[in-house]
Amino acid sequence: MPFSSYRAFLFDMDGTILTSIMAAERVWSAWARKHGIDPAVLLSTIHGMRAEDSIARQGLAGIDIALEAQAVTAAELEDMEGVEAVAGAKSFIGSLPPDKWAVVTSAPRELARRRIQAAGLPIPAVLVSADDVASGKPSPEGYVLAASLLGVAPGDCLVFEDAPAGILAAEAAAAEVCVITSAHAHEADYSPHMSIPDYVSLRCVEDQGGHFRLIAD
Question: Would you call 12 a catalytic residue per the annotation?
Fold first, then answer.
């Protein structure tokens, strides 16, 4: 499927520009065992979701969801082992004008910044985190906000995603979607959108009128 031209690029974080899956799964597995939940069942549901939304979906009685989410985040902030950039992400992002890309993540802002730094990637000028939205993915709120902050319409953006919740959020925002499959190869089967494994063969060319074309070599 060929790329169109775009005015800006919106990136999910975990599994899309960096991989923190091992760290996240260590923390969430410990949380699951603490609450008598099968970690394997829980881990299949958390990717792309805010911590509080993942916890709320478990239907546990007698817990403070906000406090549990804070505890999970605190544990994740302490575990950066294995966090690294997706292949080619640093070079590709570095080739984009700073005012033409943003990160939209379900992670809290502090955790997002810590992971982006741990992966050796640049901190974006526009970073929309779980702290900035009332509704997390699959709500389109984060992507709509990021596009607005970049001064473009969501429909003029290409969203890079890896998980179903984020793909649905991008679709609801009326943005075009490209699925990054290096972390979750099976998501390419879920989605009708174009997919690429990573950014190694991807480059960006600026057209007249402030639009950008992507070329996959």
Answer: yes
Rounded to the nearest 5°, which phi and psi values hold at 67?
A: -70, -40
**46 vs 119, more confident:** 119
Q: Which residues contact 189 (CB under 8 A, 6 or more apart)?
A: none
Burial class for 54, CB neighbours closer than 10 Å (0-12, 13-18, 19+): buried
Q: Which residues contact 186 (CB under 8 A, 6 or more apart)?
A: none
**What architecture (CATH level 2) is domain 5-20+82-216?**
3-Layer(aba) Sandwich (3.40)
Integer-rounded Cα radius of gyration of the chain = 17
pLDDT at 34: 92
The Cα–Cα gap between 201 and 196 comes to 9
Helices 141-150 and 164-172 sit at what angle, rounded to 10 degrees?
60
Residue from 12, 53, 156, 162 carrying the catalytic annotation: 12
Domain residue limits, the chain: 5-20+82-216, 21-77
- In the set 14, 53, 156, 162, the catalytic residue is 14
Residue 38 catalytic? no
pLDDT tens per residue across span 143-187: 999 999 999 999 999 999 998 899 999 999 999 999 999 876 554
pLDDT, tens only, 120-147: 999 999 999 999 999 999 999 999 999 9
Yes or no: say if 85 and 78 are a contact pair by the CB < 8 Å rule.
no
